[in-house]
tRNA (guanine-N(1)-)-methyltransferase
Amino acid sequence: MRIDVVTIFPDFFSVLDVSLLGRARQSGLVDARVHDLRAFTHDRHRTVDDTPYGGGAGMVMKPEPWGEAFDAVLGTDASAQTPATVVFPSPAGERFTQAIAHELAEAPHLVFACGRYEGIDSRVAEHVATRATVRELSLGDYVLNGGEVAVVAMLEAITRLVPGMVGNPESIVEESHADGLLEYPIYTKPATWRGLDVPDVLRSGDHGKVAAWRREQAIERTRRVRPDLLEG
């Protein structure tokens, strides 16, 4: 999988060199590259923003540097490139879910555009849509200072689903949202800790009872914490 990230804060993505994703980059499983948007400006101040048409507070990211950045990342001849999916993190976008993470984990080329200020000139996404698949995605119903935090979270969720990324594939099957439910409570040794005991069923050795208990607990936790997930 190839991943390109365009941002005005490339140092933010030093986190790509640590943990599982860092090892995946070193092994060649994931080819992740970070691009400084300011490298595609041509004035001495390296300007990437301007005032919004129609008035209003804040600044809007200019289309010119973004256009050149996408030319470099996608290539000017889209037919000669690997089909790409471009993600624009936005509080106005579709909510990012585990199902979407699975979809994007199958894409050969992902590009993430980290907006700042009031966002990116809307013509940029419109133009990119003529050359690639565009997804506007939101982590939730809140606003961040920029897209960088959202992109790191999405990258964690997506890349861990790439085959070979996680040592034990079963660990990404039995977890929250994998089957539409929150994960059941988990325990490890010792069996008793500060007066609290591990449920007897988990020490029974009866795999059928353990599976039934976990399913029951997952449903109950989902009903209590995220009842909206059970509506479907």
The longest strand covers residues 85-95. The beta strands are 2-7, 31-36, 49-50, 60-61, 85-95, 109-113, 133-138, 192-193, 196-197. The CA atoms of residues 114 and 148 lie 6 Å apart.
